[in-house]
Amino acid sequence: MTVISNHLPTAELQALDAAHHMHPFTTNNELAERGARVITSGKGVYLRDSEGNEILDAMAGLWCVNLGYGREELVKVAARQMQELPFYNTFFNTTHTPAIALAAELAKLAPEGLNHVFFAGSGSESNDTNLRMVRVYWAEKGQPEKSHIISRKNAYHGSSVGSGSLGGMAYMHAQGGLPIPGIHHIGQPDWWAEGGDQTPEEFGLARAQELEAKILELGADKVAAFIAEPIQGAGGVIIPPSTYWPEIQRICDKYNVLIIADEVICGFGRTGNWFGSTTMGIKPHIMTIAKGLSSGYMPIGGSIVCDEIAEVINAIEFNHGYTYSGHPVCAAVALENLRIMQDENVLDHVNNVAGPALNAALTQLGDHPLVGGVNVKGMMASLPLTPNKATRAKFAMDAGTVGFMCRERCFANNLVMRHVGDRMIISPPLTITADEVEIFHKRAKTALDETYKALKDGDMLTAAS
Ligand SMILES: *Cc1c(COP(=O)(O)O)cnc(C)c1O
């Protein structure tokens, strides 16, 4: 047996990794040459790697470690639950306390009228559930043709065949025959990149009205649902203009189209409320949850479903579910995560301490010559990089080249910021302190300075024509 310890030399671990481990969303051969960074432990907002570096994780893992690393309470609850009942399914007329308690707690925290939870193991699985559930709902209501789903370009809803089809990532659709039929994608409300000379408000309204045009094109009696993230995450933290969501809501109400709010990132405090739908003023019929639900300590997701849909689905056998739906250990950890969030008033911390500190730091970074704007809502943010602040120009080089350079400079300065194209992405643990935000600010500034200097020295600050 191969015994892996953190005490093996980094190069040996990297060689084993390169030989046997296929990484997601990665060109593995390129990674093999560079060598993957080996993360060994975490505490609070900091990660430690096999070389002993202390890295400030301004991405909270993958938008999920909302309470930070090393929370003993979550570890204890997991251990206790594993001893008591490590697994039992919820298929065959059985249930267990962790799933019961978590479903009830979620119903309590969710907006009014959303009182039913279908569990899954991830966000992708939850959106697969939603895809089938809305179609079954309309079929049971005598409208089986009302089955088409409208989403947006550059949306992210997961990586399974169903959820990857719901998402609007062109580079994912290019592989493996996605999207499946019956899913349509309209434009995204990305004013910074696509708004041209329109005001954000004009642009937001125009993009929302693409939904109405698509519904009329397909026929309202054919459209089951509209799915969207309240604020796009993986697409680049795209905060829609203020006009966007009210118009979407009006259109969905008018044509009887269900709204699925994908809260996988926005949920559980990231935008300053329990759910992004509250922040953005959306009345969803289903909310997708995962990531922050357990602070990433256990893989768990789910769909929080409104009374009206639950009434229809509960009247039939819905032939759907996962071995790990409501997994007792995952559910127990998620429940403890929600308890801590409430007992420690994490939402207050976001709204009164961490959020304002992050906002102030990003506003200052917005003055940097490379930064073309500041998009921030609560604890999720993006800084689009540009060779020309006035025109919001793209770089002449391939999209993502500069973002990648900046991410590497962040790593070199012991900071994790992700890049999406040429946008830097920020989504730290919600528990980050004001002092830690200041450390983030210093390291991010250094990384931006170094990136700017490299671009200047290499004569690469030219805009795409
Ligand atoms: C991450 C994410 C998903 C997919 O969740 P997985 O747990 O990776 O399957 C779905 N929707 C959104 C908005 C996400 O950010």
What is shown here, in short?
The chain contains 17 helices and 15 strands. By secondary structure, it is α/β, with parallel strands linked by helices.
Topology:
Blueprint: H1 10-20, H2 28-34, E1 39-43, E2 46-49, E3 54-57, H3 60-63, H4 72-84, H5 97-109, E4 114-120, H6 123-140, E5 148-152, H7 161-166, H8 170-173, E6 183-186, H9 191-194, H10 200-218, E7 223-228, H11 244-255, E8 258-262, H12 276-280, E9 286-289, E10 301-306, H13 307-313, H14 328-343, H15 346-365, E11 375-377, E12 380-384, H16 401-412, E13 415-416, E14 418-420, E15 423-426, H17 434-457
Parallel strand pairs: 3-13, 5-6, 5-7, 7-8, 8-9
Antiparallel strand pairs: 1-2, 2-3, 4-10, 9-10, 11-12, 12-15, 14-15
Helix pairs in contact: 1-2, 4-14, 5-14, 10-11, 15-17, 16-17
The structure holds pyridoxal-5'-phosphate.
The site of pyridoxal-5'-phosphate has 15 residues, from helix 6.
Pfam family, one: Aminotran_3
Family: Belongs to the class-III pyridoxal-phosphate-dependent aminotransferase family.
Keywords: Aminotransferase, Pyridoxal phosphate, Transferase
